[in-house]
Specification:
2 domains; alpha/beta; 45% helix; Rossmann fold
């Protein structure tokens, strides 16, 4: 209560200065009205299940849960909110045909939150990972709106900071109706800071709740003895690295499928590999590995299924500042993955898979060459890596069903 009063006074003082600064720094002012709770249109008539994923990673983690919630709770509006522009763009791209409304989460001031509540009429608010907002908790409690954290996690570094300030965070954590965490370790950390042990539970990780779908998929033809490496979602600069590594390890039975992340790069990547004199084909031409060493995947929407036919994969976007792409798209087919050092978009996933042989992070081109050789030349290691892929999914699945069951209890309470 005291925090709400103080923060409201500060909000009134800061607001005009914030607005002036945003004129010169548009980044600060982006979606300003929406975050204030204005410009949201007419109030929604039905009750809403509200999801909040601050940015891209959190939105992607919530994606399948949102779809299943839409199916399980057809009488409620589905509202998806984000905190960043990139998160908003991802939400519209991935969930535009699922959500009834997509907007920004309000600033953590009572005035903004109450405006937001009047618009979306929330029955429950679901926050991805560990976003702690004192006033959101206060306003939800005051209005008897269940507030849940799902996929909750806490790094060792964050835990150290929060532990020192547990006198502040303990009351905030207790405002959350439930805190559902990814692991026992995350659970224990949050409870030690002050979360209610009766309502802080392990749910697993939502990102592991994906399904295999090979409908209408035509694999690329290959010889029985061929070993297929996929370089998936590569970015500028990574194709050169892959080409250098491939030239070091290749023989007549080692084949490479390269999938550029951005379709506009397909031609330049094709030309890059052709300059080597290797036999390079295109998926769009229906070329196969019986007559080609390398094939460029220049069709849309096929990469996820292509992982089913490889022996292992390099996951791109990890040798630059992109932050990597989803390794689980390959691991779900029991195919080990190798990534460069920058995997910030999926660091929670890599924290799990790199404790096994299912996933490996390498520092540079030489390390990548060594790891690929190990997968190709050490049958016992390769077999274990494939088995670890299966184990990782078996141990981490079921999170989505867990959340849906908790929602049923809360919404019908």
């Amino acid at each position: 209560m005291i925090y709400s009063i103080i923060s409201t006074i500060l909000f009134i003082i800061i607001l005009p200065f914030w607005y002036l600064i945003s004129i010169f720094n548009p980044k600060l002012g982006y979606a300003f009205k929406e975050k204030l709770g204005f410009g949201l249109g007419k109030p929604l008539s039905k009750k809403s299940i509200v999801f909040y994923g601050v940015s891209v990673g959190e939105v992607l983690a919530l994606q399948n849960l949102i779809k299943e919630t839409k199916r399980q709770f057809p009488d409620f509006n589905i509202v998806v909110t984000t905190g960043t522009k990139t998160g908003q763009n991802t939400a519209k791209q991935k969930l535009g045909d699922i959500a009834d409304y997509i907007t920004y989460f309000p600033f953590d001031f009572p005035f903004c939150i109450n405006n937001f509540f009047k618009k979306v009429n929330p029955a429950v608010i679901i926050v991805a990972e560990t976003e702690l907002w004192p006033n959101i908790g206060y306003c939800c409690n005051k209005n008897k709106i269940p507030l849940i954290i799902v996929n909750g996690r806490m790094s060792d570094r964050t835990y150290g900071s929060y532990k020192k300030l547990s006198f502040f965070f303990a009351p905030v954590l207790k405002k959350y109706t439930e805190i559902l965490t990814q692991s026992e370790s995350d659970n224990n950390k949050l409870i030690s800071i002050g979360a209610n042990p009766d309502t802080t539970k392990v749910m697993g990780n939502l990102k592991f709740d994906i399904e295999v779908n090979l409908d209408k998929f035509s694999p690329i033809e290959k010889n029985p003895e061929d070993r297929i490496i996929i370089a998936g979602s590569t970015h500028t600069g990574e194709d050169e690295i892959i080409l250098t590594v491939f030239n070091k390890i290749r023989n007549d039975n080692i084949k490479l499928l390269v999938a550029p992340r951005h379709p506009e790069r397909n031609d330049s990547v094709y030309d890059l590999f052709r300059q080597t004199g290797l036999r390079v084909g295109r998926r769009s031409n229906k070329d196969d590995f019986t007559n080609h060493d390398i094939i460029i995947l220049d069709t849309l929407g096929e990469l996820g299924k292509m992982y089913s036919m490889c022996d292992f994969a390099f996951i791109g976007g990890s040798f630059n500042k992109t932050g990597g792409h989803n390794p689980l798209e390959a691991i779900i087919f029991n195919k080990p993955v190798v990534s460069g050092p920058n995997v910030s978009n999926f660091k929670d996933i890599y924290a799990i898979i790199t404790h096994t042989a299912a996933g490996t992070i390498v520092k540079n081109e030489n390390d990548l060459t060594m790891q690929i050789r190990k997968l190709l030349e050490n049958p016992d290691y390769y077999k274990k890596a494939c088995e670890d892929c299966k184990s990782v999914f078996e141990q981490n699945r079921g999170a989505m069903e867990y959340v849906i069951n908790e929602l049923k209890k809360l919404i019908n309470m």
